[in-house]
# Entry
Amino acid sequence: MTTATNPVANIGRATLDFLADVGRICIFAAQSLLAVFTPPFYLANLGRQLLSVGFYSLPVVGLTALFTGAVLAQQIYIGTGRFNAESTVPTIVVFGITRELGPVIASLMVAGRVAAAMAAELGTMRVTEQIDALTTLATNPFRYLIAPRVLAATLMLPILVLIGDIIGVMGGWLLSTTVLGYNSVGYLQRSMDFLETWDVISGLIKAGVFGFIIALMGCYQGFNSSGGAQGVGRATTNAVVSASILILAANYIITSIVFTD
Amino acid sequence: MATPKLSLQDVHKRFGSKVVLDGVSLDVYPGESVVVMGGSGTGKSVMLKCVLGLIQPDSGRILLDGNDITHVHGREREHLLRRFGMLFQGGALFDSLRVWRNVSFGLISAQRMRKRDARARAVEILAKVGLGPEVGDLRPAELSGGMQKRVALARAIATNPEIIFFDEPTAGLDPIMADVINKLIIERVRDLGATALTITHDMASARKIADRIGMLHGGKIIWIGPAAEVDHSGNPYVEQFIHGRAEGPITMAVRRQ
Ligand SMILES: Nc1ncnc2c1ncn2[C@@H]1O[C@H](COP(=O)(O)OP(=O)(O)OP(=O)(O)O)[C@@H](O)[C@H]1O
Ligand SMILES: [Mg+2]
# Structure
């Protein structure tokens, strides 16, 4: 059997490739973090990224949160109705949104927008030698291009998620009061009664981590792309896919290890 | 003889199994203008990138003023690169920035010049490459290919670097504009004392700007000599190249591959 068709060899090679990738991403992450904390800081670039990651993601995050909150209320109403516990709907909706669905769904949506945009932009800069040109003009690409993106995404995601949380709860409230016949003030009251600060904070911490992952994967894939337009296309797809998978994996790890209470 | 400004000593570089540089050695003396010619894909651009540290050579040494810079990285490399100017073959203009920001990028980032002064300086340099001040406010995507090349050239020389690399400065320009660029390169070297290393296929341009002309073939500099001697090099590769003949030793090598 040749090595190309030997299944054991293939699994071995894939595993090694995977480990090499993990290593490269870790090094890239360390370099990015170093760049975030060492001068010079490019504030104009940071401003532009804050705007494009934060402000321009608001419509996407707002709409998904609204619908998610509404459908969550609907389903929980059906579920709790089976054992006559409909009064718990507001509590469960707010719990589910702040701790889980708010951060995860907003981050997945932003991953689709932002990781793709970062990978496409940096990938184009790579294949047209703009990153090389930046280096020859004595400017560190990690500080100029990557640090602002990583910082902007890590800062903006918690803010976006907080706004998403509020809109999500409003979505549940809207559906419950208009369709399911809940009392408007009573619903909001019950939403707040059992909500703990930690529910919201833990979701926002998650969001920060997810923001970091989004920018990291967008930048990593773009920065290391090669092979013209096709390569940039591949980098863009890889950025969205890898960011989404890492967000879900990180969410599990964070929830099961850190936020067990 | 004086210490070379720039010296490549037995530089090797391969990509996978493909050997591109196979022991390149080249000295460029202070205030000299050297032209390197060679067939497409022989590794001329790779050679320049090895010197700049954009590509790490597999072996060999690169000396700047007699100091080994082959393995200089990080801040030190950043500092070193301030002494270089580079015109990329494809221009490599930052397409998110306006033309004047492109031209003054090195002035603002490396020399910390104020924006207003940098802008005035950008307009000045644009004029030198035959572009009016109104071009400064455009984006690179709004320029023609030849205009992009000239803006890239303006960016490469804006900081008055000691050593300038020009990767095909006249490709894609009309003959008149090509001559303006030739004059500009000569002026940099003669008047400002810069050291220039130019890659070109344009023989007319090479004869005008070069003190010495070298030829890269098969991963090595196979011939180098004063510009005036290029016509009597006695080297069949050089002769075929400068006369642009389809038949000769270079073509044979291509066919053999
Ligand atoms: N980053 C890279 N990865 C893999 N191969 C590369 C890379 N850069 C260059 N090469 C290969 O090295 C060889 C030399 O490329 P280079 O760009 O230096 O050619 P050149 O002499 O400048 O040609 P031209 O006159 O067409 O510009 C080419 O065969 C190219 O495929
Ligand atoms: Mg080239």
Q: What stands out?
A: The first helix of chain B runs from residue 44 to 52. Residues 89-160 of chain B form one domain. Chain B has two domains: 1-83+167-179+192-257, 89-160.
